[in-house]
């Protein structure tokens, strides 16, 4: 899967939304390649590392970068899932109140 998010346009898709779709579509061990500005590449790198994906290559030149990432077989444990759900629930209550 190759994506260029086109950072230059004023109306850019939400990076979190794009990454959620990539996570849904990409099969384990699949490769995801992105070419964009270094700020976007940095954000993507943080997101994929939090998902326990493997960064295979990152390269930058003149403010533009390329990153190649491989999706891992990692799944959250039951404890990680419960902890995450509780944190989300607390944040939701703070927003409502």
From TrEMBL:
Keywords in alphabetical order: Glycoprotein, Membrane, Methyltransferase, Signal-anchor, Transferase, Transmembrane, Transmembrane helix
Domain of life: Eukaryota
GO biological-process terms attached to the record: methylation
Membrane topology: Single-pass type II membrane protein
GO cellular component assignments: endosome; membrane; trans-Golgi network
Keyword Ribonucleoprotein: no
Documented EC number(s): 2.1.1.-
GO terms for MF: methyltransferase activity
Family of the protein in this entry: Belongs to the methyltransferase superfamily.
Annotated PANTHER family: METHYLTRANSFERASE PMT24-RELATED, SAM-DEPENDENT METHYLTRANSFERASE
Protein name, UniProt field: Methyltransferase
């Amino acid at each position: 899967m190759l994506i260029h998010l086109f950072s230059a346009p004023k109306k850019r898709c939400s990076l979190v939304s794009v990454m959620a779709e990539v996570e849904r579509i990409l099969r384990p061990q699949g490769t995801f390649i992105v070419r964009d500005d270094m700020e976007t590449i940095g954000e993507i790198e943080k997101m994929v590392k939090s998902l326990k994906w493997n960064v295979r290559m990152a390269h930058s030149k003149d403010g533009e970068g390329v990153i190649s990432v491989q999706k891992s077989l990692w799944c959250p444990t039951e404890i990680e899932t419960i902890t995450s759900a509780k944190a989300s629930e607390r944040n939701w209550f703070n927003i409502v109140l």
